Each structure stands twice: as structure tokens, then as C-alpha cells.
């Protein structure tokens, strides 16, 4: 395939960016999207130009670092797929592809297509953990009975890879789906009960402080999530938060 790429280029966080057009030729439909980007960067390096900066790591759809806005969609046109697992067979010869970073106040652009998602890390630090007895008298996790339905729901929530597609898809740049997944994976298990109230209050507080928008139940987050995280988690987090807030201040 011969393609036209319109890519957001931005030298650093302080300078203004803009769309720059590139041409790539003889792209195999068996390539992944990031392999196509590698071809472009090799071409730019050979021409003495600076390659396009973009995040990537595992390239197996696990780490969540490859987040790109492709033709107006987080991770591109293939449902339930991360950018690194998007293949060029989803495009046609002669196509023009727009490639931009995820857009959100809490996700500032660092360079080109690279954004700073450390806001997610700070939300995790605020409550995404459990207390574990490491005194040498620990209880085997397999000895704690957990209903399979709860275990399955907790596992489903835990599949969130923190890519930020939910934020990029939301018209309000809300992080509710991400935060609710992290709250839910513990709220459904007995190991998560110790910090349950603190977790809900602290993670929501940190989310608001980071500048993410409010949820208006549009559902774009679930539709664009590569791991299919359910909106049910947002309802669960709201219940956890209200219960914790009432316990903290019954008046």
C-alpha cells in the first residue's frame, strides 16, 4: 500500500505543534500499525530528519503505552484492539491516515505523539493497593473462599491496562472508567475490604485534582476500551464512594 500520513509533530511541551504530511510506500497489509511507523521513522532517519516520537513497549496489547488517536478514534478503527495490535489490513491503498496523541488536559503532550500519563500513576498511588500481612504468618489466598461471579468480575476489571483510551474517547476527558476499574478489582474481593473506604475517597479525590472531567454516561469510554471494561464498574465505584462518604460524615 501507498499511504499519506498526517501526523501531529510537536517539539516539546512548551512549543505549539501542528500536522505534518508524510508519504510511505509499499506498506504490507501484514504489518502492525507500529511497524508501519517504524518504516516511516527509518525513512526519516535516512533522509536526515528527526523521527516521530511515539510510545511503545510490549507490542502485545498488554502494557497500554502505544496509545494513539488514529483517524479520530483511540487505537484506531479495529474494536477491542490496542494500537500495537492494529494491522494495516484495516486500511486501503491510497488512504490518508491522521495520527495524533490522546487529547486531555490531564494528558499533556511531551513530544509529537508522546503524552504524560503519570496522572494515572498518582491515582493508583492514592489507593490502588491492599494491606498484606507479610509477617511470616500470611494466609494463603487460595484458602479464602470467593464466589466465582465476584472473582470473574474482579478479574474483568483488573484487565484494564491504563492506556487512557477511555479519557481520549470521552467528550469530557473523564477518567471514571479507569478509576472505577481499579476500585472494582479490589472492591469485589475480601482482600480489598481493609482500605475500601479510603480507596474510593482518595482515588476519586486524586482524579478530580488531576483535572479529568466528569462522567455524563455517554458510553464512549466502554465502546473504545481495548479491553472492554464495563460501565458497570462506574456504578460500583459510585456506590463505594457514596458509602465511604456517608461513613466519613454521617451528617
Task: Explain the overall architecture.
This protein is α+β, with helices and mostly antiparallel strands. The protein has two domains: 109 residues, Beta-grasp domain (Ubiquitin-like (UB roll)); 131 residues, Fumarate Reductase Iron-sulfur Protein, Chain B, domain 2 (Orthogonal Bundle). 35% of the residues lie in helices and 11% in strands. It contains eight helices and seven strands; from the N terminus they run ββαβββββααααααα. It has a five-stranded mixed beta sheet. The protein has a two-stranded antiparallel ribbon with strand order 6-7. The model has no long low-confidence stretch (mean pLDDT 95).
Question: TL;DR of this structure?
Answer:
This protein has helices spanning 33-46, 118-127, 148-158, 165-169, 176-187, 196-209, 220-224, 232-248; strands at residues 3-9, 18-24, 69-70, 73-74, 96-100, 109-111, 114-115. The protein is an alpha+beta fold and 251 residues long.
Residue windows where pLDDT falls under 50 for at least 5 positions: none
Strand composition percent: 5-15%
- Helix count equals 8
Return the CATH topology of the largest domain: Fumarate Reductase Iron-sulfur Protein, Chain B, domain 2
C-alpha Rg (nearest Å): 21 Å
* Morphology call: elongated
- From the N-terminal CA to the C-terminal CA, the straight-line distance is 65 Å
What is the CATH architecture annotation of the largest domain?
Orthogonal Bundle
Order of helices and strands: EEHEEEEEHHHHHHH
User: What is the number of E strands?
Assistant: 7
Q: What strand order characterises the main sheet?
A: 2-1-5-3-4
Integer tally of domains: 2
CATH class annotation of the largest domain = Mainly Alpha
Helix content: 25-40%
What is the CATH superfamily of the largest domain?
Alpha-helical ferredoxin
Judged by helices, strands and strand pairing, the structural class is: alpha+beta
Q: If you average the pLDDT, what whole number results? A: 95
The major pleated sheet works out as: 5 strands, mixed
Amino acid at each position: 500500500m501507498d499511504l499519506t500520513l498526517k501526523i501531529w509533530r510537536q517539539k516539546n511541551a512548551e512549543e505549539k505543534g501542528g500536522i505534518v504530511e508524510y508519504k510511505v510506500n509499499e506498506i504490507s497489509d501484514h504489518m502492525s500499525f507500529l511497524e508501519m511507523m517504524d518504516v516511516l521513522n527509518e525513512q526519516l532517519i535516512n533522509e536526515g530528519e528527526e523521527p516521530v516520537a511515539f510510545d511503545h513497549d510490549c507490542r502485545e496489547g498488554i502494557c497500554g503505552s502505544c496509545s494513539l488517536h488514529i483517524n479520530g478514534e483511540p487505537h484506531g478503527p479495529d474494536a477491542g484492539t490496542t494500537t500495537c495490535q492494529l494491522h494495516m489490513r484495516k486500511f486501503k491503498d491510497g488512504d490518508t491516515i491522521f495520527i495524533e496523541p490522546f487529547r486531555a488536559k490531564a494528558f499533556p503532550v511531551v513530544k509529537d505523539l508522546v503524552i504524560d500519563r503519570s496522572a494515572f500513576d498518582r491515582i493508583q498511588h492514592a489507593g490502588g493497593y491492599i494491606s498484606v500481612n507479610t509477617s511470616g504468618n500470611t494466609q494463603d489466598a487460595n484458602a479464602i473462599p470467593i464466589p466465582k461471579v465476584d472473582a470473574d468480575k474482579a478479574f474483568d476489571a483488573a484487565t484494564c491496562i491504563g492506556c487512557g483510551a477511555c479519557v481520549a474517547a470521552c467528550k469530557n476527558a473523564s477518567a471514571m472508567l479507569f478509576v472505577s476499574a481499579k476500585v472494582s478489582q479490589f472492591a469485589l474481593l475480601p482482600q480489598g475490604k481493609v482500605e475500601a473506604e479510603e480507596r474510593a475517597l482518595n482515588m476519586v479525590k486524586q482524579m478530580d485534582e488531576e483535572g479529568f472531567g466528569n462522567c455524563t454516561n455517554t458510553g464512549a469510554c466502554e465502546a473504545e476500551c481495548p479491553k472492554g471494561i464495563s460501565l458497570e464498574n462506574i456504578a460500583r465505584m459510585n456506590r463505594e464512594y457514596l458509602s465511604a462518604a456517608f461513613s466519613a460524615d454521617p451528617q
